[in-house]
Amino acid sequence: MTRLVGYLLRFAVILFGYAVASLAASAFLNVLFLASLGYTPEHAQPTATASLYFSIPFVALFVAYFALMPACVVILVAEILGRRDWLFYALAGAVVAAVFLGLVDHSGDTTFAVTHTGAIMAVIGGGMVGGIFYWLSAGRWAGSWWKDENAPTSPGPSGS
Average of pLDDT values for 23-42? Predict the structure, then answer.
């Protein structure tokens, strides 16, 4: 029974981490978009700041939707291998973004096609930011739910 609770708790942590990663990637993309339009912190109007409160969670829904399947594969691999380093998650986020770009490019749907080099780099950067924020919120404990605490350990250097 306690193992089931541990599994459910880890699943909840993974979902929380995915939500945090989606919000972080969305915030990164929103800030890049505003910067590409020439907005700087000195120019920030209250309406621009208030619009971020709506647009970041709204874009995060799209980020979470489009990245779900590749991210599930990466999360499963990370949990099985017990990967807990930030670099793995940053590079995995870039791979998830690249898979998204590849799927959109080959689907024939021109609505979501990303063809400009700057936009492609922004999406891959957003994936890296999302991966790092997933690591911060959930990835640092990857594989902890299935490791046996009572596993035998190797003897120390003295051999006894």
Answer: 85
Q: Over 70: is that where the pLDDT of 43 sits?
A: no
Query: Torsion over CA of 83, 89, 95 and 98, rounded to 10 degrees?
Result: 160
Instruction: Report how far residue 110's alpha carbon sits from residue 159's, in angstroms, rounded to the nearest whole number.
Output: 65
pLDDT in tens, 117-141: 888 899 999 999 999 999 999 888 8
Name the residue among 17, 22, 19, 31 with its Cα closest to residue 127: 22
Nearest 5°: the CA angle 87, 66, 39 is 75
Distances in Å between the Cα of 153 and the Cα atoms of 4, 19, 59, 84 are 25, 36, 47, 21
Residue 20 is classified by DSSP as: H
> How many of the other CB atoms lie within 10 Å of CB of 143?
15
How far apart are the C-alpha atoms of 10 and 6, rounded to whole Å? 6
In single-letter form, the type of residue at position 148 comes to: D
Q: Which of 35-39, 125-129, 145-149 has the least mean pLDDT?
A: 145-149
Between the alpha carbon of residue 25 and those of residues 111, 114, 155, the distances in Å are 20, 16, 45
pTM: 0.81
